Amino acid sequence: MDNTSSTLVITGGGLVGMAAALLFHDRFDRVRVCEKRSSPLEDENYSNRSLQLVISARGWRTLGLLGLTEKVKAQTLELRGRYKHEMDGSAHPEPYSRDGQVICCVSRGTLYKLLTSEVLRLENTEVQFNTEVTGVDTENCLFFTAGNVTPDVGSYDLMIGSDGVYSTVSRQLNGENGIIRVLETNSYREIRITDAPWAADGFHYWFSDHMMIGAFPVFEGGFSLFTVLERADIDMILGDPESQYLETHFPGITSVVPDARKRFHEAADGVLGSVTCNQWHAGNHTVILGDAAHGILPFMGQGLNTGLEDLYVLNDFIAENGLKSGKSLAEFASIRRPQSDAIRDISMEQFRYLTGKMTQSERSVRKDVEKHLEEHGLPGVYASCAFTNEPFADIQERIRLLNDKYGQAKQG
Fold it and tell me: What average pLDDT does this structure show over 362-377?
């Protein structure tokens, strides 16, 4: 790659794509960001995905490289842990760490607008909204677009594919057989409420055998509520006007949001699942990262943080001399893929725990592992992922060994 006259193309101008433009723009003569949606500065309804995001150590490390730490922190709430709510109205605090460490909660729209505004100030960067990359010719470093931009064929020296779980670049690199999609049978729906009597310094959750409800405090006020339930139960719980399921199992919700059943039923239906790509790059000129490479379940709060960590690592590979420094995108992929696989599996286990999918035996082993970690002064799984930059694969291996130890002890 010759950076004396070079073009960086970023497919997908979401959070990771905009962060990539900010991080790498000064190493290229021209940067083009192609985003199929309209500008978040003009369209308030740009996304129906989760309204709240958490930023932890890995994310802050990359935002620090961008010089945005203080600007982002000014728009966040500090969360010290979870509150588990019971049917009798009691709530039990569960700190994220024994040391009182916090994660930060930020509205997706707020962060997206901030990153977009920063990118639009860059002199050598063009953001093309309402423009979708429809095809990529990695052999000749060409890409094809549809939308507001003409001509519809362009060239690149480096392409970063950050165009989400249905990435055009990922399909080009992998074909359909190289992308593993695991879709859960659960529905995800989210609503916003303007007021609630819950503490604003933590994440709140309730669950029954059929349903989980979570609530994130919102910086601008109120809470963002989401529910996860089996699709087979939607009609019984949400679709039946005579249903008393919420009133019976979630009195702490319905006392605050009397029309919760109706609002959840009318909310957009989100899909939960994971995406794993076998091939992350072509040569030393095309690479995918973020959700395009590794869509994960959101229950560890590490989706955005993992994407930002991708950028942090990639930064070392194209520093100063581009990819001529001896580092290759193949090496980048070999470093990042095991980490994304590990946090995918860790997030799956957290999903199973919070939604009641674990067996009693699995819960018992999990409790023994947490007790072992506490007795030995070691951080739990969540704290390790959120408050350190320890490789996810190392965290996963430590927990696997402990699970084997205590699982075998119970069998014996």
Answer: 94
